[in-house]
Amino acid sequence: MATIKTRAVKLKFTGPLHMGAGKNDNYDHSGDLIRSDTIKSALYAACRNLFPEDFPDDFDLSFFKKFKVSSAFPYFGDELFLPRPLSGINVAFSDLAKNEDSKLSKRIKKIRFIATSIYEKIAAGQHLSFTEDYFDLSKQILFSRPSEKAPKILEKEIRQRVYVPRPGETNQDSVPYFIEIIHFHPRAGLWFMLEVDDNAFFNKLEAGLRILGDSGFGTDKSVGNGQFQQSISEISLNVPDKPEGKMLISLFCPPQEAIQTEYLKKSAFLTEKRSGYIVSAQNIRFRHFRRKSIYMFAEGSIFPASMPDVGKVVDLKPETLEQMHPVWRDGTAIFLPFNNL
C-alpha cells in the first residue's frame, strides 16, 4: 500500500444552499454538491480581485495550472465521504438473507457516497460486510461505523418566492415560483480535496477562500445563501501502490486525442453536461448571457491506470460576444488509485 497526503477543505455553511442546474427559471431543484469546475472558477474570480498583479491578461492560464481540486462531497463530523465507484462495489449486508439478491442490488445501487476508509479497502479489492445501521437516514451515504440513530446530514426544503417586475418592465406581471434549498446538519457540510505544492500560492488560495466564504456559492447569495466558514487540514489516504485503475473525484475534460476506444472499453463512467450563466463577467452587461455548454466525465468514473489524466481548461465564451473576455472552465482533475476494476 502507498499513502497519499493532501489537504481537505471543509465548508461549514452558515445558511441555506441552492446550487442551480444552469437552466433558466428552474429553481425547484438544487444540487447537493459543488462541482470542481465551479470551485476553481470561484477561486479564480476571488483571487483575481485580491491579487490583480498575478493576472497579467485574460488569456493567462497559469492560475489554473498551479493547483487541483476535487468536487465538494458531504462530511459529517470527522467522517469524509467520496463518490461510490461507478464500476460497482463488492460489499455484503449481514442483515439481508442470502436469497435477497434483489434487495442487496437495490441497496448498493442507492449508495452515492462512501466513507474514505471504506474507499481505501474497496480500492484495494477487499470484500466488506455492513448492516443497515451504517447508513445515514437517506440510505445514500455509507459510514465506516454503525450508529444507533441514523444521522440526517441534509434536509431539502421548497420555498415559494415571487418575482417582482423591475422598473421599466411594464408588460411583466408578478410571478410566483418555487426554490429548493438545502440545510446541513450542524455537524455536516461539504468538503473538497486541494492539491497545491507552492506554499506561497496556497496562502493566496486560503485568502480567496475567506472571501468566498463571505460571498457564498450558488443562488441568492445576497440574502445569505451559500455562505460558509472554511477549515483546512491535512489528510492521508492509503491506496494501492500498483493500481490497475483510478477513480475520478473531479469533473474531467481531457483533450480529444486522449479519449481512445481502448481506454473507454475498460472504463465505467458517466458524463455531466456543464452549462449556465456568466455570473462573474467583468462587464455587467454580459452577466445574463449563457456560456457555451460542455460535457465532462463525472465523479466516481473509473478508468484504467494507463489512461492519460491530463485535463484541459476550455473557453466557453459565447461566439456572439466577440468583445468579451474568455470564460474559462477547468477540466483538470484529481484521480485516486483504484485496484478493483
Mean pLDDT: 88
How far apart the termini lie comes to 17 Å
**Portion of residues within helices:** 10-25%
Instruction: Note the total helix count.
Output: 6
Please outline the major beta sheet. Answer: 8 strands, mixed
Return residue spans where pLDDT drops below 50 for at least 5 consecutive residues: none
Question: What this model shows, in words?
Answer:
It contains six helices and 19 strands. The chain has helices spanning 36-50, 62-65, 101-110, 116-123, 199-215, 261-264, and strands spanning 2-13, 67-69, 73-76, 79-83, 91-93, 113-115, 128-130, 141-142, 154-163, 175-184, 188-196, 228-239, 245-248, 271-277, 290-297, 302-304, 313-315, 328-330, 335-338. The chain is α+β, with helices and mostly antiparallel strands. It has a domain at 2-239. Helices cover 17% and strands 32% of the residues. α1 crosses α5. The radius of gyration is 21 Å and the shape is globular.
In short:
This protein has 341 residues and is α+β, with helices and mostly antiparallel strands. The protein is built from six helices and 19 strands. The protein has helices spanning 36-50, 62-65, 101-110, 116-123, 199-215, 261-264; strands at residues 2-13, 67-69, 73-76, 79-83, 91-93, 113-115, 128-130, 141-142, 154-163, 175-184, 188-196, 228-239, 245-248, 271-277, 290-297, 302-304, 313-315, 328-330, 335-338.
